[in-house]
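Researcher: Here's a chain I'd like modeled. Treat it as a single chain, no partners, no ligands.
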Amino acid sequence: MTSEIISKYLSNEASEQEVQALFDWIEASDENKNQFIKAKKIWALTTLSSDLSIETAPVIQMQPKNKIRQYVQYAAIFLVFLGLGTTIFLLNKTTENPKEIVLELGDGRLEYLSGKAQTALLNDKGELIAKKFPNEIVYFGKVADQKVIYNTLSVPYGKRFKLKLSDGTIVSLNSGTSLRYPEQFGLNGNRDVYLTGEAFFEVAKDKMHPFIVHANQADIEVLGTTFNVSAYPENPTVNSTLIEGSIRMSEAANSTNVILLEPNQMATWQNNSKKLAVKEVDPAFYVAWTKGELAFKDTPFSIIAKIIQRTYDVEIINENSDLAKQNFTGTIKISESSVENILDLLKRDTPFNYSIDQKTITITNPR
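Model: Modeled as a single isolated chain. Structure tokens:
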């Protein structure tokens, strides 16, 4: 295997045939695998040194002079460890949110979707399964039911991503969201996906194969429709808002505990009481995030703070009791607003002070 093909692969410039040939070569022997890891280390360090002047210069300038060398050293180690794969990532995943979009393949391999180039995903036969773009993955085809392989896509705070599943269903994933889904749906049976976080679904119609979203303790079943599901693990509820079509939301452990939704309705599952409720809503409010907006309607600040944390990848500590009791209404364009802009806007209604230390925001009483 030539170093040229390895270099092209690491730079996301290799063709489908070259990628498959590289994978075959890596799996052929431990020696090849070790050689590839060594080449990946060298590539990572070379990339870091060439990018330091552009990407990390502001950070270095903020450090005391005697810490500059230490910072560069740690940055290099981190980048190399990131490239080594599953073990290092899993050891750190429980203590810190990853800052890149991570695709975990069915065989346990991890891919970090940070490259700008288009790449291809092939199966063990060299057949095209999906095309990966900077902000989207598009899947193709179906397989026999016993050959269904599940992938998991995890989107960190501060980012969003889009999937087109192999049946044509389009899924938009919000910040802090994870979706487990079939690489290719089976020829028979249901179309099952598993959601943690928030996603907007545009489900391809297929009456013979119901599409089911498993979200915490609730299941949402559809035949073909558009709807939003919010199921963040820190929230005591699962909300499903229907835009068009029809869906059925039920308790995962008891399918007889069920509610049918019509457009412009939202179903809410209460984790503690095991109850389902439905109400009329303006769906535009609940899908504003898919258009790059944050929409609030008489929303408590505690909820707004969680949304800001996920959207901008920050931590908010609120020590202002008056602010904690306030509700707010409004719409904010994410691309045009910083966290400071939003906080300054909220201060007009309820005075408070805040300080920012790196990514931690502390809100206190006004002086």
